[in-house]
Amino acid sequence: MAHQLHLEKEKYRQWVKAGLGLGYLKDGLVPFCNDIADQQHKDILQNIRSTKSLPSIVTCGSCQVETLKPDHKPVGNAKNRVCPLGQAKCSCCFKGKIACPNNICGAIYDFIVQHQASSPPSPNWKNTDAQQWSTHPWSICKCFINAPGYEQKQSAGETDCTGLLHLMINNQYFHSHIGCNVTGTNNLFSKVRQYRNEIFHSSSMELEESEANTYLNDMIAVLQDGKELLHRSDAQIAVKKLQDLKKKDFIITAEGFGEILRHIKEEMRKVLKSTESSATQYDDLKRKLLELETNMSDEKKGKLENEKELEEIKKTITEEKKEKLEMEIEQAKLKEKLTVLETLVSEQKEEMAKIKKETSSGQSQADYEQTKLGCRTQLIEHYRSDVLKVSAIPLQPDEENCNFNDIYIRPTITSKIEKNRGESEEKEIKSMSEIFTKNGDPQKFIYVVGDAGSGKSSFCKYLINCWCMAHSDGHNEDDEFDGVKEMKKFDFMFYISLRHNIKVRSIQEMLEMRYDKMKILCKLLENDSEKIIILLDGLDEWSFDSETRNEFQAGLPERDFTKKYTIFTTSRPWKIHSLRVSNREIHQLLKLKGFDETHKKEMIRKTINSIETNH
Question: Residues 518, 521, 527, 529: is their CA dihedral positive or negative?
């Protein structure tokens, strides 16, 4: 389904908001995590140098995690060594390990194990490089991220929200800087970490508003942790952004949608890498199982020559039976592991295929949506610089140094209401929705008539200004006419001055000439015409040398009947009367009444203020 159609669905909007929320949460956590990581690194080195009386500048860049000998010693006898820190398969229990030549890396190894919050401690040694421990703080932090895919990350800024939360939950040093209890699986930080999986692994890409708000509220609660985060300006800036996401009128920009796409691509990359790792482990276990089964099938063969040999063979058989039993137990364990791994590989391959399919099928549409949003941004910039810059003094039109909104006064607008016995009366239009809808139905062909100087062209600029505000971040202001609110219904607005298109027959040709640099114009008109409004200003100044090609549109710029765009046309009254336009062509006929004394006084006040401000 197209991105824009998704956005019209509230559940999809809530899913996108939750995804954006994770990005804001990361922004709020990054400076905090970098600072604590630096402080942790400084404390580790200072403690090691003090305890071991080492020089203040000593470092090491030669040790490998796989071969490093920790400082702590195993307990138990030679056949049954156990790590005193509780780590399974700890390097202290294996012979052949090499002590740090600079007497520093073994102590860092001990610190990492001792500060693991999990029980038993389980550092992720695959994420780290021991050669960087004494010089790069983040190389130590990565040991506490209990997930693959972070070995190349060099800072908190390069680490996603999940990784940062892993670090804060698993590293006891961080606990001293957090007021919330982060132990167990049901704490606030663990819940928020799980939200990322629920959001980005969602097949429907939909969330109820209540669910999204729960996610966002918990993210806010993390950033408002009372010990330190609450007092950090960067965290509270992120809180403000998260609170804005909960607003009904929050506008999702191109950058916001791009951020979601980046998250999905990163998730796909991680799933792919994890699947490859699991497949390798799966193959290794399969080979080991095959070796075990081969060993178990071997039988001792030989000829019995005497009683002594018989006794020896009986003894050997007893020992082999014992060994075979042990092998059978190990084989059962291996088969159980293989079953788990097969399931894991299957699930991960399925997940990867699903994400690839979703990303692939949605990529072209996503690219189109991003291009649309980029074009809309350019269109807004064009309108604001070239159309909405006006002169405060009508007699000096070249001095276009005022913002249109600073001097504009909206005139009275009326519509004709038919009464009984052919009588009619004029009713004043009180809101923008009364222009574009009638009895709840959208009106596609709207005509606004008015005498010279009544403000027809200025009203077109008012619509343009409302549309620009409706599609700009941070511009949700509105007036009593609800112009911005109504313009949010239209993704694109195209303004055409008809007096500059006298020799052009159709609206399509006018658009192609005026907006020729917009490469996706044809695709917009083909796929999204229902969300487009076209302003045709000055019908009385337009004519075509020959008859138009459609008898139902005589004297009007030709439009494509297959398109569902809204056409807003301004004209002097005589033009509409002379063309004898049918009711089929006019869904809404409005009249600009000009300005009364109140309007004039307000116009004078705004003009004076604008002149004083700009001179």
Answer: positive
* Same domain? 114 vs 222: yes
Domain shared by 144 and 284, yes or no: no
> Given the DSSP bridges, would you call strands 566-571 and 445-449 parallel, antiparallel or unpaired?
parallel
- Which one of 19-23, 303-307, 489-493 scores highest in mean pLDDT? 489-493
114-130 residue pLDDT tens? 999 988 999 999 999 99
Number of domains in the chain: 3
Token duo for residue 150: 């972070």
Rounded distance, CA 283 to CA 508, Å? Answer: 62
End-to-end Cα, the chain, rounded Å = 52
- DSSP letter, residue 491: S
What is the rounded CA–CA span in Å between residue 320 and residue 303? 18
Is residue 430 domain-shared with residue 569, that is, in the same domain?
A: yes
Tell me if 123 is assigned to some domain: yes
The answer to whether residues 251 and 471 touch, using CB atoms and an 8 Å cutoff, is yes
Give yes or no: residues 238 and 329 share one domain: no
- pTM of the shown model: 0.49
User: What gap in Å lies between CA 147 and CA 461, rounded to an integer?
Assistant: 55
| Whether residue 375 sits in one domain with residue 422 | no
Do the beta carbons of residue 189 and residue 180 sit within 8 Å?
yes
- DSSP conformation class of 455: S
Q: Indicate if the pLDDT at residue 401 is higher than 60.
A: yes
Q: Are residues 378 and 440 in the same domain?
A: no
Range of the domain at 287: 274-386
Torsion (CA) 503, 509, 510, 512 in degrees, nearest 10: -140
Of residues 440 and 275, the one with the higher pLDDT is 440
Residues 245, 316 within the same domain: no
Sequence-distant contacts of 365-369: CB under 8 A, at least 24 apart: 365/2, 365/3, 366/3, 366/257, 366/261, 368/520, 368/523, 369/2, 369/3, 369/4, 369/254, 369/257
What is residue 2's predicted lDDT score, i.e. its pLDDT? 43
Give whole-number Cα distances, 353 to 19, 345, 356, 520, in Å. Answer: 21, 12, 5, 31
Question: The tokens of 466 are what?
Answer: 């409302």
Contact 182, 168 (CB under 8 A): yes
pLDDT at residue 613 is higher than 90: no
Dist. CA 37–CA 173, nearest whole Å: 9
